[in-house]
Design goal:
The structure holds three protein chains of three kinds. Chain A is an all-alpha fold. In chain A, 66% of the residues lie in helices and 1% in strands. Chain A has a two-stranded antiparallel ribbon. In chain A, helix 2 runs antiparallel to helix 3 and helix 4 runs antiparallel to helix 8. Chain A is globular and about 75 Å long. Chain B contains seven helices and no strands. Chain C is flat, with a radius of gyration of 19 Å. Classes of the chains: A mainly alpha, B mainly alpha, C mainly alpha. Chains B and C meet through helix 1, helix 3 and helix 7 of B and helix 2, helix 3 and helix 4 of C.
Chain lengths: 553, 187, 100
């Protein structure tokens, strides 16, 4: 077999982390726990709820847009709904999502550690996440109504509107702080807690991705922190930093906003790419192609991603030179992403493909992310963006990357690590059914948006011209198919957590990374003995060759 | 390592404000010069000296605990807090003097000025205000450290907490090192 | 153990801190004096250079950066790089407004 010297004997005596009895019991044992695995599950519970709320808002939006004019709500409500959809999905699902749930659960195990570097700060991150979510919910319920500024809070409207912008700002600020602490924790963990023998280039690729993500979380998030703080100060105290009536520059707000929010999309996508790199070798039974290229591309994406923010502002009134410069830089950022895609596909080539559910989601990711990424490059071209900015084309693009990319990556991770996390298996037949519902529904929902955006349909518009009617109609039907898939998925996962078939197999998928050598579900401290790592991860082909040699000797 | 990473977030937090400052200073250079005349360079320089000295006493308090000179370390920490307090009192007088002249966010006096001047004071209050908040937090943290040193939680072979607090304090000092010339020395 | 002893011996003396403090005081005086002089376009640059020297002293001596490993120095450079590149790219929009 492999030559990793691992001393994780099967442990019949120690309870799993789910049954572990620490200082507190019952629910306190969960919400006061500093166990990274429990914290990961706490995030999963909360995240799922917020995700479903976000989906509901999206569903309602599509319902409104099925025909021109008023369908089920008035324009003010529509403005608030798309604002909330954006705020919830971005700050409460896509940005925290993979790092907070799967990063937390799996990162320490992947590097052979017992927990993260700062377990209590990890718990604090979750508390802050919950507080941020609570503040967002309160902003919906209090009089004044939910914010109607769009999730981007552009000045001057964000200062002038009478809706509950302050609460929304406070929510976003708190969530940002949560994100920063997670990033801080992960960087320290990767530097300080790797098991003996695990050099940087023996780390699994999802660790590289989470590491690059953590840096962006640390460096970029404070910028939006201060920007949102300034909007709050402008609303509260009349300090007119961005207000043109007071000499301020509203375009400068946009600059500051996007200096974070562009890198933020790399916070969203990098962990998902890490998951893809993790899953493909397992279900192609081949070692990953171009390990170092994929590892370095994660760093490159984080780096280049901080150079391109103003491509969100091409029509805002920037100087010509600046437009040109940012368009050029945007072309660069596609390169490391493309490198990853080529390496993944090369890994599939001549592999022994098993189309298990995690693999289906990963293949869908590659397809959907490629469309999203390529349309991103299209938008990066200045002359194209002048045409499509603020149209449905953009909406389709970012849903392809954030939902088709990160979303499907999240689902892939969920279906991959589910058995390890819960010691049970979900209904795999049902999973394949809703996979197809999700994939087909997704494309029917979003692809028409490319076309109608190209033809001029603006985004965030409540009403539209009759010529766009058929696109909207098809798109809304797609949303129903997608939602059907989501409902089935939630049902399957939720039911299987409690009633799924129990499995004790340490390695149901045949993976080669450290989490597949420990108990299912893991014990409290993950390992009975910290492993000593001697080989690279993803050693499939190597193992086959060695087995052949051993057999022929 | 964790504290250093946290300090980077503080650096970027204030960094965003410095970004704003630099763009507006570039756009409204003359009006910034004009507005800066309201600030008292002597008081600013004096406050700078006070804060730099507090950094010294903070650093020395760590040497003291390394050398197992517990009482000296506590005294130095307390002096750091006193110097910080002195800084804040000066700040208080500076701010109230301006309020007295009618220069505060949203005031009629301020709004009647040119845009560059309004921006200067807006940035002045936000940046020195945020900085002052950090000074206050630092004072509390150092007080906690002093108590821990006195109680024996911080000792000559376990003083990481004090070291981390020191790092935080030095960053607060560094931010002021840049704030001072940008607000007080452009006349 | 050995590492800690090295660290202690590096920061064991009071004198280096007092020396740095003196340097900081002198630099502060210099920067105030220079501000009184009329050097036109170089005012901002000079002030920032002196401030950077002061910050460097605080960073490397008071904050013990020079005693830490390569990793921390790289960290600081990365953070400063991110801030720096934001400045540069932001100014591409503002300093060239005339090119509109």
């Amino acid at each position: 077999m492999s030559s990793v010297a691992v001393a994780t004997g099967s442990n019949g005596h120690e309870p799993s982390y789910l049954d572990y009895k620490g200082k507190h019991s019952g629910i306190l044992g969960w919400i006061l726990s500093t166990d990274h695995k429990r914290i990961g599950l706490l995030y999963l519970c909360a995240l799922s709820v917020f995700f479903l709320v976000g989906v509901t808002f999206g569903f309602l939006m599509r319902l409104e847009l099925i025909s021109p004019g008023r369908t089920i709500m008035d324009p003010q409500t529509y403005n608030s709904i798309f604002t909330l959809h954006g705020v919830i999905m971005i700050f409460l699902f896509v940005v925290p999502g993979l790092p907070a749930v799967f990063g937390n659960f799996v990162l320490p195990i992947l590097i052979g550690a017992k927990d993260v570097a700062f377990p209590r700060i990890n718990l604090l991150s979750w508390y802050l996440y919950m507080l941020g979510g609570l503040l967002a919910v309160i902003s919906i319920l209090l009089p004044g109504g939910p914010a109607d500024t769009g999730w981007t809070f552009y000045i001057p409207y964000a200062v002038r509107t009478n809706t509950n912008v302050m609460l929304a700002l406070l929510a976003a600020f708190t969530l940002g702080f949560s994100s920063i602490l997670t990033g801080l924790n992960f960087v320290t963990t990767v530097h300080r807690l790797r098991a003996p023998g695990m050099s940087w280039f023996k780390m699994p690729l999802s660790v590289w991705s989470l590491y690059a993500t953590a840096w962006v979380q640390i460096l970029a998030t404070p910028i939006i922190g201060i920007t949102l703080l300034l909007v709050a100060v402008e609303r509260l105290l009349g300090v007119g930093i961005f207000d043109p009536a007071l000499g301020g520059d509203p375009v400068l707000y946009q600059h500051l906003f996007w200096i974070y929010s562009h890198p933020a999309v790399y916070i969203m996508i990098l962990p998902a790419m890490g998951v893809v790199s993790e899953i493909i070798p397992v279900f192609a039974r081949r070692t990953i192609f171009g390990y170092k290229f994929i590892a370095f591309s994660s760093i490159a994406i984080a780096l280049f991603g901080s150079l391109v923010w103003a491509h969100h502002m091409f029509t805002a009134g920037m100087s010509n030179t600046s437009q040109f410069l940012f368009s050029l830089l945007t072309m660069l950022v596609a390169i490391p992403s493309a490198i990853k895609v080529f390496n993944w596909i090369a890994t599939l080539y001549k592999g022994s493909i098993e189309l298990a559910t995690p693999m289906l989601f990963v293949l869908a990711f590659i397809f959907l992310f490629s469309i999203g990424g390529l349309t991103g490059v299209m938008q990066g071209i200045l002359s194209v963006d002048i045409q499509v900015h603020d149209t449905s084309f953009i909406v389709a693009h970012f849903h392809y990357v954030m939902f088709g990319g990160t979303g499907f990556g999240f689902f892939a991770a969920l279906h991959y690590w589910f058995p390890k996390m819960f010691g049970r298996m979900y209904n795999r037949k049902l999973a394949k059914i809703y996979f197809w519902l999700l994939f087909i529904g997704f494309n029917i929902l979003y692809f028409p948006m490319f076309i109608m955006g190209w033809l001029g349909m603006p985004r965030r518009y409540y009403d539209y011209l009759p010529e766009f009617y058929s696109y909207h109609f098809i798109s809304t039907i797609g949303s129903w198919i997608l939602v059907a898939g989501i409902i089935l998925m939630v049902y399957n996962i939720f039911k299987s957590v409690f009633k799924g078939k129990i499995i004790t197999d340490k390695n149901p998928w045949g993976g080669e990374t450290l989490e597949w050598r420990i108990d299912t579900p893991p014990i409290h401290e993950n390992f009975t003995e910290i492993p000593v790592v001697e080989t690279d991860p993803y050693q499939y082909k190597m193992n086959e060759i060695e087995a052949e040699k051993a057999g022929s000797n | 390592m964790g504290m250093w990473l946290f300090l980077f977030t503080e650096l970027l937090l204030f960094g965003g404000l410095f970004l704003l400052y630099s763009v507006y200073r570039f756009t409204y250079a003359d009006q910034f010069h004009l507005a800066a005349k309201e600030l008292n360079t002597i008081v600013g320089a004096f406050n700078t000296a006070v804060l730099l000295t507090s950094s010294l006493t903070m650093a020395l308090s760590i040497v003291a605990i390394q050398r197992n000179q517990k009482l000296l370390s506590i005294v130095l920490q307390l002096i750091t807090i006193l110097l910080a307090l002195f800084f804040m009192v000066n700040k208080y007088f500076e701010w109230t003097a301006k309020f007295h002249h009618g220069i505060y966010p949203g005031s009629e006096e301020l709004l009647s000025k040119q845009p560059g001047e309004i921006l200067f004071f807006g940035l002045y209050y936000v940046m020195t205000g945020l900085h002052g908040l950090h000074v206050l937090v630092g004072m509390v943290l150092i007080a906690v450290m002093a108590r821990m040193t006195q109680q024996g939680t911080i000792t000559h072979d376990n003083y990481v907490r004090l070291e981390n607090t020191g790092l935080y304090w030095h960053l607060v000092d560094i931010i002021w090192i840049f704030l001072f010339p940008l607000f007080y020395l452009i006349t | 153990m050995e590492e800690k002893e090295n660290k202690v011996s590096n920061s064991h003396s009071y004198s280096i801190y007092i020396l740095v403090w003196l340097a900081l005081m002198i630099l502060t005086t210099v920067t105030v004096a220079v501000a009184g002089m009329d050097i036109g376009r170089f005012t901002v640059a000079t002030a920032l250079i002196i401030a950077s020297i002061k910050a460097f002293l605080v960073l490397s001596i008071f904050m013990h950066l020079r005693n830490e490993g390569k990793t921390f120095i790289i960290f600081v450079i990365v953070a400063l790089f991110f801030l720096g590149i934001s400045f540069v790219l932001l100014f591409s929009d503002y300093s060239l407004q005339a090119g509109l």
